[in-house]
UniProtKB/TrEMBL annotation:
One of its GO terms (biological process) is peptidoglycan catabolic process. This is LysM peptidoglycan-binding domain-containing protein. It comes from Bifidobacterium platyrrhinorum. The keyword Signal applies. Residues 235-247 have a biased composition (Pro residues). Residues 224-254 are annotated as: Disordered. Pfam families: Glyco_hydro_25, LysM. The keyword Hydrolase applies. Keywords: Glycosidase, Hydrolase, Signal.
Length: 355
């Protein structure tokens, strides 16, 4: 009887141990995200299960360490991802730039949109996110994850959240920390990934790192990277059509302007010469409510002016143009200062530059 009793007790103890282990704790992956701020070999030595590497920003910046950082992830047999930092220019152009840059890795790495307010001319424009992720999916068949702070999840449209995994950033504090077993508010937002510090300290790297958890296994990670488990070949970038030159608008067609940071309708009217302001059509229906990245349309009968009304002329940026390409090596800096461009590498089709 005692032997039977001992066996029963041992079996019950084993079953109890099995049921008290949290399933997600066994599955969750620990990881880092890196950019050009870190060394090109950070992913060669740091301790992680996955690494997400910055690829691009806007339509003019590529992380110079991207290839070397990604190579080490693959050579070590770890899970790989790439992110695009939104510049807030033309969403389709930025998606194309991102897909073209990471083309060799599509189907093998998770793709991510990094949605933050810094250097993002379309911050607050939820439709920008929608256009970007839809374009990436159309080109690759992959829905990218969307990264943002927990405080700004409201900016992500419902249809995007239904298709794309969330990568949520929320810190209890930013004190130095290693990998945590359960970060503050972990899983609260139904997120696929959670970033809980930018001051992580882990083995294999002598410096601060962003630390994250992916709430799943490597197999689930691969489902985000390649949902169909097939060879993915991105569709080629469509050849951009020449931007038509402004002509006298008609009531039916109108004259379009892409709103930039700091714009008002009266300011747009002043630099285009298209008055009155009441002839402008805006998405909100209220000419006092516009935001960067929107397209506003003039429906009046005036003809667009070639200058700003102060002796300066306007250049409308076309696809593929750069500031130095438009204004030359000796002129681009003056134009960047004149237009208050925080990053001269970030210009986008439809943007109007005074010169």
């Amino acid at each position: 009887m005692s032997k039977i009793r001992h066996r029963l007790l041992a079996t019950m103890a084993l079953l109890l141990a099995m049921f008290t282990v949290t399933p997600s704790a066994m599955a969750d992956m620990r990881g880092i995200d890196v950019s050009g701020w870190q060394s090109p070999t950070v992913t060669c030595t740091a301790d992680y299960d996955f690494a997400v590497v910055k690829a691009t920003q806007g339509t003019g910046f590529t992380n110079g360490y991207m290839t070397s950082q990604a190579r080490c992830v693959q050579q070590r047999g770890k899970s790989l991802g790439f992110y695009h930092y939104a510049g807030g220019g033309n969403a389709t152009a930025e998606a194309d730039y991102f897909v073209t840059t990471v083309r060799p890795y599509v189907g093998k790495a998770v793709l991510v949109l990094d949605w933050e307010g810094y250097q993002n001319a379309s911050w607050g424009n939820s439709n920008w996110i929608r256009v970007f992720v839809n374009r990436v999916h159309a080109r690759t068949g992959v829905w990218p994850l969307v990264y943002t702070s927990a405080a700004y999840l409201w900016q992500i449209p419902t249809d995007v959240r239904s298709r794309c995994g969330l990568w949520v950033a929320q810190y209890a504090s930013n004190a130095a920390t290693g990998y945590q077993s359960r970060p503050w508010n972990y899983g609260k937002y139904g997120e696929a990934m959670r970033q809980y510090t930018s001051n992580g300290r882990i083995n294999g790297y002598a410096g601060p790192l962003d630390l994250n958890y992916f709430r799943g296994t490597s197999a689930q990670w691969n489902k985000y990277a390649n949902p169909g488990n097939t060879t993915v070949t991105p569709a080629p970038t469509p050849t951009p059509q020449p931007t038509p030159q402004p002509s006298k608008p008609s009531a039916s067609s109108g004259y379009s302007v892409v709103v930039r940071s700091g714009d008002t309708i009266s300011g747009i009217a002043a630099r285009t010469g298209l008055w009155p302001v009441t002839a402008w059509s805006v998405p909100s229906g209220n000419i006092n409510r516009i935001w960067p990245g929107q397209t506003v349309v003039y429906r009046g009968n005036a003809t667009p002016s070639a200058n700003t009304g102060t002796g300066m002329r306007i250049h409308v940026v076309r696809s593929g143009e750069t500031l130095s390409g438009i204004f030359g090596a000796s002129g681009w800096q003056r134009v960047a200062q004149l237009n208050n461009l925080a990053n001269p590498n970030l210009i986008y089709p439809g943007q109007q530059l005074r010169y």
